[in-house]
Structure formats: C-alpha cells, structure tokens
C-alpha cells in the first residue's frame, strides 16, 4: 500500500497492535476527554515547515548538509522557561556555527525541544529505601518526585505538555528569528568560550578562521539577511501514541496526515518492532521521521524498517539514529551501513553517542564520559569514511546550563563532582562547556 494514501482508518490501526511503553492511565474517561480537547487545539507546527525540513534532510542524505540535533533527555514543565530555553538555543547555535564552518556545508538545526516530555523506561517501577512506586515516564505522564501522588499517571498532563511545547516553540521562534541568533553575535560568544576554556588553544585555530572569514565578508560589503535569522526545527520521541494521534491533522494543501506536535518525530530503540504500534502509526504520517538503532539491530531489520517506513524512497523522509556504544560501534555499524547503502535507499545517518554509553557511578548517579561520547562519534566517522557514506551529524543530550551530570571535558569534571548540580529528570546531559568542547572536536572530524 502507498503510504501517501493514509486514511483516518490507517491512522488508528495502531490501536489493534502491541504498543510498548504506554502509560496505564487510571481514568479512561478522562483520557478520552483530554484527547478530544487536544484534537481541537491548533497545530504546534505546520505541514509546510515539516516538508521544508524533509527537503533539508534530503540534502543531508546526499552529503550536502549536516544535522545537529539535541536538547534535554527529558524536558520538564518547570524547565520550559525563558532562561533555560534561551541557554539551550544559545548553546546549539554556538555549536552549529563551528560545525558549519568546519563542514563547509549548511547545518540543519533540530532541537530535542518543545515536546520531549515522555520517556521509555527499563523498568515499570522504581524502588527507593524499600518503597516501590511507578517509574517516572516524563512530565507528560507523571512527576519525577518520589511520592505516590506525583507518580500517578495523569491524563491532564497531556494538555500541559501541549501548552508547554507551545510556550517553548514561541520562545524558540522569537530567539531564532528576532535578532538573537545573529551570526556575528554567536561567533563572539564562541570567542569568549575559547578564551575561557582550558582546552581553548586547541580551538583557537578554528575560531580565528571563522573570525577572518566574517571580517572578509564584512569588508566585501556582504551582510546577508541569513546572518541574523536561523531555521530551527522541533523534535521529540513519538512515544505516547494517544498524544501523537490527537495532534495529527490532515494538511489542507495536500490532504495528507501530519503529526503537528513537532517537525520531526522519532521511534525509540525500545519501540521499533516492525509489527508494533509505533512503526504502524508513524508510517502513516508525512513528517520526516527517525528510528533509533541499537547494537542488536541487524542489517535485515534496517532494510525492513525502510520498506515499512519509506517504501517509496522519499528523500529526507527517514533518518537512522545509531546508538551503539563506543565499544561496539566499529563492529555493529558497518553491516547496517553497507547493506542499506547497497539497497540505494536515501537514508540520513546520525550518531547518538549518548544512549550506548551510560553507566552508574559509585555515587549512584547515572553518568556518561565525554571521552566515550567522542569515541563513539569517532567510530561513526571511521565507519562512514571507510564505506564512502556521509556521516550525517549528531544527536545529543545537552543543556545550556552548567550542570554536573557527565564526566570529562576541558574543565575536567570528575565523578566526585557529579553531586554538585545533578538536575536531569532522567539521563545525564552534557553541560554547556562540554557541548562546546564536543562541537570543536567534531568540527575537527569534519575537517579531517
Ligand atoms: O533516555 C532514555 C531512556 O528513557 C532511559 O535511558 C531509560 O533509563 P532507565 O534505564 O533508567 O529506565
Ligand atoms: C530513549 C531514548 O533513546 P533510545 O531510544 O535510543 O534508548 C532517547 O533518546 O531519549
């Protein structure tokens, strides 16, 4: 069947399949009322914007652009405030400038923002000091606080997620279109970072080159409009299907369904079963979509996902986000890339170097080493370079704040520092310094 002819029957077919990682809602009448209310809300993004992103991702698949996708592991309602959103955008823009210069190609900027409110979990419950409660599944479902009331799955949170996403998107549109994203200003922030970073000398070369390029352009009288505005897209894991279905609309231009909760949606490693509800639902929406692929993925799994999610080979439609772990990427990735590339399918390859590299520190904090993160990206580049395919970019968990959740980086954050500002609601994020360290080091890989 052509994916282009989806009907509302198709959009609800997932309901008859196994949907993993769905919250059990205490009150189904309330869920119904909430989803009806959501279905009547205006779209958060527009189908035309999703199509524009698809075109840009098609350029990435052709090797003509790269992707920088990132943001919180789990956004919180409390964190959807102007300071936190501005800091995340600022960090992402700073990283993007460095990568744009190094790659000499456009960088497609996608936030894990404005909707990343639901989390798949390894276990349905959490036990602390002998007390067992339902696991935290993201602010869309319940609260991170460890009390029975906070951990109750509350359908009204779906509405709060929608309104928080709207607030965040409003802020991102203001920050990226209202002059804040001016290239010269972003470069000045990077120069400050290089001057203050213990590893700064290593980055001075790139920062200096960008500076000279900008001075040259100014001297030539070139001051393009594009310098002061950037295109920024939203994304999140399409996990809670009642929410995603309620926010799916038929585009009046084309008569095709789009999930207007975000520009880009992805299917997680835990919910990518071919015969599962998530693959079934996402195959019918026309947004650009991604699938996370962990180390157990076989080349045949990848081909079957392509057949199911992009049978017509639409460029920019499908992104594979590989998250193998630093120790496995060099063995697990080549068979996938080789076979997919051999099939001729136009796939974007992104590296998520976070989710295969998590471990528990002695203090009990979940953490990641920046060295492992960089090693996985290095392996990802090695594999793509060896096979002649395009390393399409990175998918990161980071924040613009000075948290202490991951180890390493120019400032040498150690395990013993983790307790100082450990604020994530789920997995550990790179802080602002570590994110910029990473951007300069990945820039070297693109130049290499
Ligand atoms: O972000 C990814 C997952 O939600 C997270 O890694 C799950 O963590 P858990 O193993 O603590 O449930
Ligand atoms: C859960 C996530 O990742 P994965 O599906 O790769 O485990 C995530 O990116 O939040």
UniProtKB/TrEMBL annotation:
EC number per UniProt: 2.5.1.54
Source species, domain of life: Bacteria
Pathway assigned in UniProt: Metabolic intermediate biosynthesis; chorismate biosynthesis; chorismate from D-erythrose 4-phosphate and phosphoenolpyruvate: step 1/7
Keyword Transferase in annotation: yes
Keyword Transferase among UniProt keywords: yes
Gene3D superfamilies linked: Aldolase class I
Pfam families given in the database record: DAHP_synth_2
Catalysed conversion reaction: D-erythrose 4-phosphate + phosphoenolpyruvate + H2O = 7-phospho-2-dehydro-3-deoxy-D-arabino-heptonate + phosphate
Family: Belongs to the class-II DAHP synthase family.
NCBIfam families: DAHP_synth_II
Protein name from the UniProt record: Phospho-2-dehydro-3-deoxyheptonate aldolase
Protein's organism: Actinocorallia aurantiaca
């Amino acid at each position: 069947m052509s994916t282009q002819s989806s009907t509302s029957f198709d959009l609800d077919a997932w309901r008859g399949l196994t949907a993993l990682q769905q919250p059990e809602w205490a009150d189904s009448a309330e869920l119904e009322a909430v989803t009806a209310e959501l279905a009547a809300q205006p779209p958060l993004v527009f189908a035309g914007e999703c199509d524009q992103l698809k075109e840009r991702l098609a350029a990435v698949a052709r090797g003509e652009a790269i992707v920088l996708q990132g943001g919180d592991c789990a956004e919180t309602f409390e964190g959807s405030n102007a300071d936190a959103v501005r800091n995340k955008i600022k960090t992402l823009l700073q990283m993007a400038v460095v990568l744009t210069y190094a790659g000499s190609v456009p960088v497609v900027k996608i936030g894990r923002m404005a909707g990343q409110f639901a989390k798949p979990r390894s276990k349905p419950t959490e036990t602390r000091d002998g007390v067992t409660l339902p696991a935290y599944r993201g602010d869309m479902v319940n609260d991170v606080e460890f009390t029975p009331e906070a951990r109750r799955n509350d359908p009204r949170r779906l509405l709060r997620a929608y309104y928080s996403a709207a607030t965040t998107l409003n802020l991102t549109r203001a920050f990226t279109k209202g002059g804040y994203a001016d290239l010269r200003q972003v470069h000045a922030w990077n120069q400050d970072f290089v001057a203050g970073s213990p590893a700064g000398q290593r980055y001075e070369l790139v920062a200096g080159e960008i500076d000279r390029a900008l001075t040259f352009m100014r001297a030539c009288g070139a001051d393009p409009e594009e310098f002061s505005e950037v295109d920024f897209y939203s994304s999140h894991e399409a996990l809670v299907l009642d929410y995603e279905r309620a926010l799916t609309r038929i585009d009046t231009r084309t008569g095709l369904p789009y999930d207007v909760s975000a520009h880009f949606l992805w299917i997680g490693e835990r919910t990518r079963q071919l015969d599962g509800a998530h693959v079934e639902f996402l195959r019918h929406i026309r947004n650009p979509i991604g699938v996370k692929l962990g180390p157990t993925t076989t080349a045949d799994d990848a081909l079957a996902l392509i057949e199911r999610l992009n049978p017509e080979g639409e460029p920019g439609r499908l992104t594979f986000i590989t998250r193998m772990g630093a120790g496995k990427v060099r063995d697990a990735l080549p068979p996938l890339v080789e076979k997919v590339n051999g099939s001729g399918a136009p796939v974007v390859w992104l590296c998520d170097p976070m989710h295969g590299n998590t471990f528990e520190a002695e203090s009990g904090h979940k953490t990641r080493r920046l060295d492992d993160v960089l090693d996985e990206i290095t392996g990802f580049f090695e594999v793509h370079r060896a096979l002649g395919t395009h390393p399409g970019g990175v998918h990161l968990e980071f924040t613009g704040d000075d948290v202490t959740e991951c180890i390493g980086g120019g400032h040498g954050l150690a395990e013993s520092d983790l307790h100082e500002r450990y604020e994530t609601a789920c997995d550990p994020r790179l802080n602002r310094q570590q994110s910029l360290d990473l951007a300069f080091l990945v820039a070297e890989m693109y130049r290499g």
